[in-house]
Input
Amino acid sequence: MNRQKIIIDTDPGIDDAMAIHYAFAHPHLEVMGLTTIFGNVFVEQATRNALFLTEQAKQHIPVSEGAKQPLRMPPNPPSHYVHGDEGFGTMPAPNPTRKPDPRPAHVFLSETIRAHSGEIILCPVGPLTNIAKLLEYDAEIIHHVKKLVIMGGAVDCAGNVSAYAEANIWNDPDAADMVFAADWPITLIGLDVTSQITCEAKDFHQITATAPVIGGFLEQIASFYIDFYHSIMSRHVCLLHDPAALVSVTNPSAFGYEEIPLEVIIHGEAIGATRPVDHRRPVQVAKSVDPETVRKIFLDICGQCDRIF
Ligand code: BDR
Ligand code: CA
Output
């Protein structure tokens, strides 16, 4: 069977690591590369962490470094309180031996997507700066991407960094608005659905039972993430934001969608909000989810993470 080719644009990050290992372990996905972006951590940390994840899973794929900062506004500080100082909870900085691809992320994306025209799903799970730079660098790329599946936004619900905005969109609203304005197919997996998808410590323990190496790593970093969510939600759970985007690639029917043209508010109190607008190509927005199904799929696949050895 032909595996679905994907590239993940990422700021690892605890839930990014979960999403990436899910993708590596999934028998129907072929990860063609990772591109990195500032957000949860500085971009240099994101690149180092992404290289570490590829080494853990013995995936000899390119990791290409992207933007250090948003298109126009100054960068927000990294969210170390959510993901830890180095991105993986209390884990010290990893020290991978692999080196990044020499190309900047937008060049790597353009060349790789064109080399497999119509075949690659681009899955950004961080701020959208690299994707906006890709559009600036290669406007015709919209005809070569199969589709984008983006983790971001809060269309019909409250944000997580302000009353209005979700973190990935808020970290570069100008870039996000450019991406929604372009004429390419987008599926948006935002807080409308990801805030319903939870995992507990015992779920990660279950992953470790069948995948002691990578599952054990995910269990270790999840504990920091669960402590963060406990501090804001008073529940011993974490939300599976970035994994949900990957599950929507492999199991789209776990979600219900509405076609909504979107813009991003780029100034003022509501900066980073994702709002319906007229006269744009509609985005396929996930508005409902079967959270139990997504959780089970995630646990099942991550429970096989060590099988690649
Ligand atoms: C998003 O922001 C980041 O903290 C997470 O990795 C996820 O991509 C959730 O709002
Ligand atoms: Ca992320």
About this structure: The first strand starts at residue 4 and ends at 10. The pocket of calcium ion (ligand 2) is lined by residues 10-11, 13, 16, 40, 125-126, 242 (CB under 6 Å).
